[in-house]
Design a protein that fits this description.
By secondary structure, the protein is an alpha/beta fold. Helix 2 links the parallel strand 2 and strand 3. It has 13 helices and eleven strands. Helix 5 runs parallel beside helix 12. It folds into two domains: 193 residues, Spore Coat Polysaccharide Biosynthesis Protein SpsA, Chain A, CATH 3.90.550.10; 102 residues, no CATH class. Strands 1, 2, 3, 4, 5, 6, 8, 10 and 11 form a nine-stranded mixed β-sheet that branches. A two-stranded antiparallel sheet has the order 7-9.
Length: 336
């Protein structure tokens, strides 16, 4: 397991101007990767909150860094793509605010974020999140709030059952499709695109697990650990942001996306499930990969899916037969 260990300091207000002292306890971390098309409106809206902003750029090859510098926002420019989790940890380490908002570059804050801070300050609350609106102006139900994934859900997802029967009970429960999103409530897993965390809890849990590389499931894992530690996360519908979604993922090479997603699924399963549910997930990934391979060949009239999903099958196969090192130990997942 790769978890970042850092030395943290006590919260301080020294990095804030007197004009923004009323927001001196809130920081915002934005991770970018080829985000030039989205980052401008995001920074403009975030700057209006008066919070302390920092952008961590993962080796963008476009004009992202230039846009951030032009906006006058503090920038840490990585010379390689360190992965989303590592970049988030860099941002949290660089701020000393007691409450820090993780914000995607394709997310535009539309209201005050102070209610998120107030919710985070409640006893037993580790984090808070607001309502995300899509490009159509409607709440992103099924994305902005979800439950912690179970082995059954991950099997359904791998085996395409959620695609073929999207309103099945397992998918319905996971995506929280029956909730009243007009009211505040505790939730299990809000979207990492718009998530405020109490910094003391971030310290306690040692941030995101950087083993989820380069992307996916690092925020799910963190929310799971929040619940396991006895804390809760609060949903605050009065705080609203617009969210496009998946801009950096769309820019990744298509052939890498299945490896990234399934690699994170397998790591999450090894980390949080007991041995037999974890092995069942491995088998579901193998079977589902063959199904996707066949469908990809049939509909795309190309043999490329063989190479793509063949790598996923080998990855899941290795984990299935890997020597178990005891419950709670995370198996090393080799990249292929």
């Amino acid at each position: 397991m790769t978890v970042r260990f850092s030395t943290f300091s006590e919260p301080s207000e020294t990095c804030y101007s007197e004009a923004n002292r009323h927001m001196a306890d809130i920081g915002i971390v934005i991770v970018t990767h080829n985000s030039a098309a989205e980052i401008g409106p995001c920074l403009e809206a975030a700057s209006r909150t008066g919070a302390d902003l920092i952008v961590i750029d993962n080796a963008s090859s476009d004009n992202t860094q230039r846009a951030v510098k032009h906006a006058g926002v503090r920038l840490i420019a990585n010379n390689r793509n360190a992965g989303f989790a590592a970049a988030v940890n860099q941002g949290f380490d660089s701020l000393e605010c007691p409450y820090i908002l993780l914000l995607n570059p394709d997310t535009i804050i539309e209201t005050s974020i102070e209610p998120l801070r107030d919710a985070c300050g409640l006893e037993g609350v580790a984090g808070s999140s607001g309502m995300l609106l899509g490009e159509n102006g409607k709440p992103q139900i099924g994305f902005m709030v979800r439950r912690i994934p179970s082995p059954v859900f991950l099997c359904f997802e791998a085996l395409l059952l959620n695609r073929l029967w999207p309103r099945n009970p397992v998918n319905w429960r996971f995506r929280c499709l029956g909730l009243d999103y007009a009211r505040a409530m505790p939730v299990e897993q809000p979207a990492g695109a718009f998530l405020m965390v109490r910094r003391s809890v971030w310290q306690l849990l040692r941030g995101f697990d950087e083993g989820f590389y380069p992307v996916w499931f690092e925020d799910v894992d963190f929310c799971k650990r929040i619940g396991d530690a006895g804390y809760r996360i609060q949903y605050v519908p009065s705080v609203v942001a617009k969210h496009t979604g998946g801009h950096s993922i769309r820019k990744n090479l298509l052939e890498n996306r299945p490896l990234y997603w399934y690699g994170s699924v397998l790591k999450y399963s090894a980390k949080h499930f007991s041995i037999w549910p974890e092995k069942v997930v491995c088998l579901a990934v193998i079977i589902g990969s063959f199904l996707r391979m066949i469908l990809g060949i049939a509909y795309g009239r190309s043999l490329q899916p063989i190479a793509v999903y063949g790598k996923v099958v080998r990855l899941a196969w290795r984990q299935f037969f890997a020597r178990w090192q005891g419950r709670g130990e995370v198996l090393s997942i080799p990249w292929v």
